[in-house]
Design brief:
about 300 residues; alpha+beta; eight-stranded mixed beta sheet; four-stranded antiparallel beta sheet; 17 strands; about 25% helix; globular; binds fe (ii) ion
Length: about 300
């Protein structure tokens, strides 16, 4: 494993493909001091300040961190890392975590506009009660394995999910699956229906008023499978497409090679969105259940 001063880097205990990066206290102190120059309004209103906070982070590592994070995400064998404070203190509050998430993503690429939130990131709660129209906030239902950005025109190379806080939570673990670990990948990737165009559209809360067309599977530059899929948004236009999607959904959920992760508060999962799928297990029922998440999605710098 590479060594970067101020960080503890290891393989994550859940999977050889996932790198675990802990930010040491002294690094957090320095960051917190630097970040205090800007409030969230500046970060939201002035896109260049996002790059400034990213540079603060990278400068602490002699620009080694940005190179390393990009290498992980582009490497087919890994493609995923978990990063967060080694210890949660009063300094690592929600504002700090938004800034830290902003800094990390701006070392990787440019975030897409998040239509649900109206800015480059979205913060949202999962609670006991939910009246929304998508599975994202339904605490007691499995959020099936999927990729992000399936119904938008923006390129979505990567995604970040940060856990800002949680209370009274049991269950709700993150679930990840790498395409190369998936038992049914070859069979479904080679099914001609998977290469046909599907129509994708989203429910109202997503604030996207157009539809897009694309296949479920496509090839990367080396001919390896990539996927863009979520259960709720493709609109099959015939029985053949409907059956294909059912088979795909069953094969994903039935995989024995899913990685289950209990993400600590303050930590984030960042994954390549074309060969990693993500989901969430149901929570145990609790009236006072509360989890706040932050998400950012975007494209790589080219
Ligand atoms: Fe997602």
């Amino acid at each position: 494993m590479i060594k970067i001063s101020g960080f503890k880097i290891s393989k994550h205990h859940s999977s050889n493909r996932i790198v675990n990066i802990q930010i040491e206290d002294k690094t957090l102190e320095k960051l917190s001091e630097k970040f205090s120059r800007f409030d969230l309004t500046a970060i939201e209103y002035k896109p260049f300040t996002r790059f400034t906070v990213a540079k603060y982070l990278d400068d602490l590592t002699n620009n080694e961190l940005s190179k390393y994070l990009n290498d992980i995400l582009r490497d087919r064998k890994t493609g995923c890392f978990i990063i967060g404070p080694e210890k949660i203190t009063n300094k690592t509050d929600d504002i700090f975590l938004v800034k830290l998430s902003t800094a990390i993503t701006h070392l990787i690429g440019t975030p897409n506009h998040d239509s649900m939130a109206g800015k480059f990131y979205a913060r949202f709660f999962v609670k006991h009660e939910d009246k929304s129209d998508s599975y994202l906030r339904k605490a007691y239902i499995n959020l099936d394995l999927h990729t992000d950005g399936t119904y938008v025109k923006d390129v979505t190379d990567w995604l970040m999910m940060t856990k800002i806080e949680e209370k009274n939570v049991k269950g709700g673990e993150s679930v990840m699956l790498h395409l190369d670990d998936w038992e049914s990948c070859d069979e479904l990737f080679n099914d001609p229906v998977g290469r046909e165009n599907f129509i994708w559209s989203s429910p109202k809360s997503k604030n996207v008023d157009y539809k897009v067309e694309h296949p479920v599977f496509f090839k990367d530059n080396n001919g390896l499978p990539q996927i863009s899929y979520i259960d709720q948004f493709p609109k099959p236009k015939n029985m053949k497409q409907g059956q294909f999607l059912q088979k795909l959904s069953d094969a994903l959920e039935g995989s024995k090679n899913k990685v289950i992760i209990k993400l600590p508060v303050g930590s984030a999962i960042i994954a390549n969105n074309y060969f990693w799928l993500h989901g969430r297990k149901p929570f145990k029922v609790n009236k006072n259940l509360r989890r706040e998440l932050l998400r950012i999605r975007g494209s790589f710098f080219h």
